[in-house]
Design goal:
Length: 450
């Protein structure tokens, strides 16, 4: 299927009946859209995470369950024929009830994944029915039959080859006859246990599925009309970017802009699938295309901000003129599955920031066991409340003079860590959370509003 398009809708895009109807209109407007990937209705995953963490107070638990029922009821009530769908949704809510009780006795990552997956399982029942009622030949598909991951609950690692095989067997044939509606975020391990790809993982799911079905395009519909030069809530003069290259966008996804899950572009890049990002609320506004080749490659493209950064500094005199120190550090981090974002080194110390994408939320923590092992090697210092500011652009490592402009603008700021040179597309640094927005505003004015 050469024009096969996959469309993904985020939580706010499927928040209620009107929002879901807008999604259906977007799906109708592109006859090549054969596969729809949906998040849970807005707010649902947060409630499920709360239950999964173990709510002991039974009254509070019932209150959360009631909220979950209300969110879905309000959409079900507006369907023409909700009977079957309501019974499907309610049977999942029963599962949620018993899992929440189990979690209140003993929480576990495995249980959490089973529980939080229920949001997408419910939203897709409703979206499918709504689409059918508009005359779309829609069918719901349980993506756990295809999206195989390892059993690292909370942040499953997809098994790309198996996913492709399973998709070719069971998903692709279905797409010839139907518009298939399926879940983002969730998958299953070899034993059939439900897993998730980590918070915000639906984008990544959509990209993995697009790759597996060999799609020609991937649309990510969210609540912002594409990627902007920076977050317009921080700098009012931020402007939309119509087109951006994969290389620039991957630096953005990794280093800040919360628009896409950081891993989304990996499968898209592997298979050269153009990705569109737009707002399902205002599809007429257009959005951003992320492609291999773009028409213009400006020096400065965007400014991204990511807060909740944890910085770890390791110091040891043993590092001085020695070899193998960093290898040992990374061996320990790898063993504890700690993913590192940034790194800078000096003669006797190394600073790094930790990546955060699992279901726990909050600032990433250095696992205690990893800390203890590192402490056998060196001193370990952990700092929180930092934000990462990333300037994204082109040919930055070969251009002259702009560092003066950037750092001159920030002369009053304490820059905690600076990374530059590894990529021609990015210069980034850490600042304290309390001044992070100001840093973005100043830089945006200086570099983008001239
Ligand atoms: N529903 C999941 C979350 O809120 C996944 C997603 O929406 O991307 O994290
Ligand atoms: Mg999202």
């Amino acid at each position: 299927m050469s024009n096969f398009n996959v469309a993904k809708f985020g939580g706010t895009s499927v928040a209620n009946f009107e929002a879901m109807s807008r999604c259906a209109a977007i799906i109708e407007s592109n006859p090549n859209t054969k596969l729809v990937v949906s998040s849970a209705c807005s707010g649902v995953t947060n409630l499920l995470v709360e239950l999964a963490n173990g709510v002991q107070d039974q009254e509070h638990r019932s209150e959360i369950l009631k909220q979950l029922a209300e969110i879905h009821d309000s959409i079900l009530n507006q369907l023409n024929d909700p009977t079957q769908t309501a019974s499907d949704v309610y049977s999942i809510l029963d599962t949620v009830t018993s899992l929440a009780e189990a979690a209140s006795i003993q929480a576990s990552n495995k249980l959490t994944d089973h529980l939080v997956a229920c949001g997408e399982l419910m939203s897709t029942f409703i979206l499918t029915q709504l689409m059918k009622e508009r005359g779309i030949n829609a069918v719901r598909f349980d993506i756990r039959d295809v999206l195989r991951t390892d059993n690292n609950f909370g942040k499953g690692e997809p098994e790309v080859e198996t996913i492709a095989q399973l998709a070719q067997q069971s998903l692709v044939p279905l797409c010839h006859d139907y518009v298939v509606v399926t879940q983002g975020f969730i998958g299953s391990d070899e034993e059939g246990n439900t897993t998730t790809l980590g918070r915000g993982g639906s984008d990544y799911s959509a990209a993995l599925i697009a790759e597996a079905v060999k799609a020609a395009g991937l649309e990510i519909w969210t609540d912002v009309p594409g990627i902007y030069t920076t977050d317009p809530r921080i700098a009012a003069k931020a402007s939309p970017i119509p087109e951006i290259s994969f290389s620039e966008a991957s630096e953005m996804a990794n280093f800040g802009a919360k628009i896409l899950h950081p891993s989304t572009l990996v499968p898209a890049l592997r298979h050269d699938i153009p990705v569109f990002v737009g707002s399902s609320k205002e599809p007429e506004k257009g959005g951003t295309w992320i492609r291999h080749k773009v028409e213009s490659s400006p020096l400065f493209r965007a400014l991204a901000l990511r807060c909740n950064q944890t910085m770890v500094t390791l110091r040891s005199a043993k590092m001085f003129h020695a070899y193998g120190f960093l290898a040992k550090v990374f061996e320990i981090l790898a063993k504890h599955k700690v993913s590192v974002d940034l790194i800078t080194t000096s003669e006797i110390s190394v600073s790094l920031t930790l990546d955060q994408t699992d279901t726990s939320g909050g600032a990433p923590q250095l696992p205690e066991a990893a800390r203890l092992e590192l402490e056998e090697l060196c001193t370990v210092e952990v700092e929180h409340n930092l934000c990462l500011v990333a300037l994204i652009g082109n040919n930055m490592s070969e251009s002259k003079g702009y560092a003066k402009q950037v750092f001159g603008t920030l002369e009053d700021f304490n820059l905690r860590m600076i990374c530059y040179g590894a990529s021609p597309h990015n210069l980034c640094f850490l600042v304290h959370e309390s001044v992070s927005k100001l840093a973005i505003q100043k830089l945006h004015t200086e570099l983008f509003e001239g």
